[in-house]
Design goal:
Blueprint: E1 9-14, E2 17-28, E3 32-40, E4 47-55, E5 64-72, H1 85-89, E6 103-113, E7 119-121
Antiparallel strand pairs: 1-2, 2-3, 4-5, 4-6, 6-7
Protein name: DUF4430 domain-containing protein
Organism: Caenorhabditis tropicalis
Length: about 120
């Protein structure tokens, strides 16, 4: 984590927009935080979507769900809750399983803004 070297896990095509992948993102503010991140390498229009990120807990409790509607322009994607390295490593939080953690995600595009500023709706996903 501290090297900020995370794999880019391909997701594929969502809403007829290709090149989506899942990774982790580092944000440096008062503290250094890490959180799940979905982005595409393809050029995309502004999109309106609903996203879910769950960080699984190993002791059998349900994961911490985060479901929120949002939108993104051509160069942005959704980010889940961000935690410090100490939060991930703290055994009381229960995030780590065999040296790693599990992030479940869901992504649904609800609308796509055309170049003519007309919203179209996704009926394919």
């Amino acid at each position: 984590m501290e090297r900020n070297s995370f794999p880019k896990i391909p997701i594929g095509t969502i809403g007829r927009i290709g090149g989506w992948y899942f990774t982790m993102r580092r944000k440096i503010d008062v503290e250094t935080l890490y959180g799940p991140f979905i982005i595409t390498s393809s050029s995309k229009p502004a999109i309106k979507f609903r996203v879910t990120f769950d960080i699984a807990i190993k002791n059998g409790e349900p994961p911490l769900p985060q479901v929120y509607p949002t939108w993104a322009g051509p160069i942005h994607g959704p980010t889940g809750s961000q935690f410090t390295v100490d939060d991930y490593l703290d055994e009381r939080n229960g995030y780590l399983t065999n040296g790693g953690f599990i992030v479940e995600y869901g992504f649904q595009i609800e609308g796509i803004l055309s170049p003519d500023d007309i919203w179209t709706f996704n009926y394919y996903d």
